[in-house]
Amino acid sequence: MRIFFTGGSGKAGKYAVQHLRDLGHLVTNVDLAAPADGRSLRVDLADAGQVANAMQAYADFDDLDAGTGVPRYDAVVHFAAVPRILVVPDNETFRINTMSTYNVIDAATRAGIRKIIFASSETTYGVCFHDGEKKPAYIPVDEEHPTVPQDSYAMSKVVNEATARSFQARSGADIYGLRINNVIEPHEYAANFPDYVAHPEKRRRNIFAYIDARDLAQMVERCLAVDGLGYQVFNVSNDDSSVGLPSADVTARFYTGLEQRRPMGTYETFYDNTKAKRMVGFAPSHGWRDVVGG
């Protein structure tokens, strides 16, 4: 496939881009920080003209060789965003994230691209950046959980989901949103997780969950491979929690009195990834316990 991938220089994107290239796909990294190393474009995604032009332009010199004009993209993966609050002013976070997503999906559907994957967030559930402690409405948290956050970043992601749903209704394309949990790179296990084992309360805002960057890349692969689902959102997390306590102990310590909608495994994630497994064959295979133990 020829893939237009925004945010491919970011923490999560760089793993997904490399994974897709290793599988043989031609991936164009579209990022303000993209290196000038071929198949990369520096694009301000909040500028609709730049987005539309880049999506229907040559991506590298080898695109010229066939002599048949600009090749079309088969899919768009949109990961680029201001990654959290407290990076730029709140209104800029909201503006950049919502306008860039509108521009990317609008350009993709106008170009006739039938597969669009975009990054949503765990923050949509309103727990992560809440002022004070906020508990989920129930556990484990699945895609039916209310999405009424307080902060500008999570607000932008909720708006992006509504934008994507409306474009899907108009175009009929497959548009899948990934509610990505806290992304962890391999080197962060040894650096950070012993502290999480000792102080599990530090993982409360992430619903005691995480997603390995390599497994997130595999989720993108699976979404590209599975067609015909229309508009969908998927929680993306690893199978286990990010703390050493058994899930029953986490519940007793942090979630006393909350509705538990089904039995949970001994160390099962509180950020339910069942839908992703069932509908696209997501199969996370990495984990912090392989490195840290516990």
From TrEMBL:
Residues 4-195 form the NAD-dependent epimerase/dehydratase domain. It holds the Pfam family Epimerase. It comes from the Bacteria. This is Nucleoside-diphosphate-sugar epimerase. It comes from Loktanella fryxellensis. The lineage of its organism: Bacteria, Pseudomonadati, Pseudomonadota, Alphaproteobacteria, Rhodobacterales.
